Automatic annotation (TrEMBL):
PANTHER family named in the record: APOLIPOPROTEIN N-ACYLTRANSFERASE (PTHR38686)
Chain's gene name: lnt
Family: Belongs to the CN hydrolase family. Apolipoprotein N-acyltransferase subfamily.
Membrane-crossing segments per the record: 20-51, 63-84, 96-120, 132-155, 167-193, 200-219
GO biological process annotation, one example: lipoprotein biosynthetic process
InterPro entries for the chain: Apolipo_AcylTrfase (IPR004563), C-N_Hydrolase (IPR003010), C-N_Hydrolase_sf (IPR036526), LNT_N (IPR045378)
Protein name: Apolipoprotein N-acyltransferase
GO annotations of cellular component type: plasma membrane
Length: 510
């Protein structure tokens, strides 16, 4: 009798462990939906596994555990390249760096965990109602992750749906969070529908086709239009290895190398990447900046490059500076990286474990205007600032071009480079503007307003992307509403999902 009791308890325990393992693997598999793999349907299938497992749970804590397992798998697989920055370039010992990444991914996993718990607690009724609940919760969780503690929206699920996904057309209206909500809705609907019932299956398939078809149609709408003359641009990729960049004995090599690349690639607009000059501008050799910009100014063009600026108060900014035919202008990075560019309160001890140059920076003002360069108005964003679409649209409708300066050498040869290019593709579609990217090690590219990558340099090579780019004017719906549209969609989904249930015809079967 005792053995039978033990056996009956062991089976559910094995089932729970199996469910957690399935959620962990499904989360890990979701990374293949993003660049460089681009298997975008996997995002829907990955969430279908999570929703299906959670639907069989009876207690919220079981849903929390499943969501946490899914999130842990997704973030460990997707952003583990942060370990390279801490260990290889930051000097943090291997066990501490691994533990820090584990803790960070565990924190990020709390957001899908909350979705799982709330879905189990409130998910009742027809499949379409529960799918709406799942989608509304997912949008809320991703928006919160992109805002709390300055936000970390990397791998928001909507990023996986760049073209050729039929959902890509929604970026211009709903932004990345709204598209992520649609992925969650479709995934939950696939998992929860009664597929053995032919009529219900037809309704489910019809709903999926409608969502995808509407997205395809939205993608054909020209929300913005060309303006001004095309601009000849040279986007330079310097390819300076991060471990060598800050060595004082090599400084002259980097200064000479930047000047040589500018001379070799003349254009109306020449761009060098983030912090391409690893020194405060006021400590550069006398006459160097004039020498750097001279070849561009001689042909009536402008040079934009990344450099550290210091104001009269002694505050240091990660900035972009323009020199050339147009009046000199600058942009100071607004959204700094915690632990990399500044220390959050009470975390000063972190810098006793790592060695990160220029890690005491000051935020730039939130209302900086676009740079006026010739006939174009160029909105600058630096490195991972382009993950925050709600901040980039502050420069609209004035800006005609978007320009990102980045240095991802901190993360080695990893998923960081292609994932970041995919982020730029989403920002181009949200704003209806071309996104130019000049990076140190990759990926230097031009992204058109429809999200298409017009051209890209191979990562970890030195060179320049010489091309012609057209400015655009006008506003997409996302540029007008920002993330409010996705939040409204989430609220509507939650309200409809929570309405009193009655007879709903075919819908009751699914």
């Amino acid at each position: 009798m005792t053995d039978r009791v033990r056996d009956s308890g062991a089976a559910p325990a094995r089932g729970r462990l199996g469910g957690l393992l399935a959620a962990l693997l499904a989360g890990g598999a979701s990374v293949f939906a993003f660049s460089p793999f681009g298997i975008f349907p996997l995002a829907v299938l990955s969430l279908a596994v999570l929703a299906g497992l959670a639907a069989r749970e009876s207690r919220a804590r079981g849903g929390f555990a499943l969501g946490f397992a899914w999130g842990l798998g997704a973030f460990l697989a997707g952003v583990s390249w942060l370990y390279v920055a801490l260990n290889r370039y930051g000097g943090m010992p291997m066990p501490l760096a691994a533990f820090a990444i584990l803790l960070f991914c565990a924190y990020l996993a709390l957001f899908p965990a909350a979705v799982g718990a709330l879905f189990v607690r409130f998910g009742r009724g027809a499949a379409w109602r529960r799918a709406l609940l799942f989608a509304g919760l997912w949008i809320g969780a991703e928006v919160l992750r992109g805002w709390l503690f300055t936000g970390f929206p990397w791998l928001a699920l909507g990023y996986s749906q760049t073209p050729p996904s039929p959902l890509a057309g929604y970026f211009s209206a709903l932004g990345v969070y709204g598209v992520g909500g649609l992925v969650a809705f479709l995934g939950a609907l696939v998992a929860l529908s009664a597929w053995r019932n032919a009529r219900a299956a037809a309704v489910t398939l019809g709903a999926i086709l409608v969502v995808c078809g509407l997205g395809y149609g939205l993608g054909r709408v020209p929300w913005t239009a060309p303006t001004g003359k095309p601009l000849e641009v040279a986007l330079i990729q310097t390819n300076i290895e991060q471990g060598l960049k800050w060595r004082p004995e090599l400084l002259s090599d980097w200064l000479d190398g930047n000047a040589r690349l500018v001379r070799e690639h003349p254009a109306d607009l020449v761009v060098l990447p983030e912090t391409t000059l690893p020194l405060l501008a006021d400590r550069l050799p006398d006459g160097y900046l004039e020498e750097l910009a001279a070849p561009v100014a001689a042909r009536g063009g402008d040079l934009v490059f990344g450099v550290f600026l210091r104001d009269a108060r002694g505050a240091i900014y990660n900035a972009a500076l323009s020199l050339g035919a147009s009046p000199s202008q600058n942009y100071a990075k607004q959204h700094l990286v915690p632990f990399g560019e500044y220390s959050p309160p009470l975390f000063g001890w972190f810098y006793e474990l790592v060695d990160i140059p220029m890690s005491d920076q000051t935020r730039g003002a939130p209302d900086q205007p676009p740079l006026r360069l010739g006939d174009q108005r160029v909105a600058i964003n630096i490195c991972y600032e382009d993950l925050f679409g709600r901040e980039l649209i502050r420069s609209l409708p004035e800006a005609t071009l978007m320009l990102n300066l980045s240095n991802l050498a901190w993360y080695g040869d990893s998923f960081a480079q292609p994932q970041h290019l995919q982020v730029a593709r989403v920002r181009a579609m949200e704003t209806g503007r071309p996104m130019l990217r000049s990076t140190n090690t990759g990926m230097t590219a031009l992204v058109q307003p429809d999200g298409r990558v017009a051209d890209v340099l191979p990562p970890f090579t030195q060179g320049a992307l010489n091309l012609s780019v057209q400015g655009y004017e006008g506003l997409t719906p996302y540029a007008r509403w920002g993330d409010s549209a996705a939040l409204l969609l989430a609220v509507l989904a939650l309200v409809v999902a929570g309405r009193p249930r009655g007879k709903t015809g075919v819908g009751s079967a699914i």
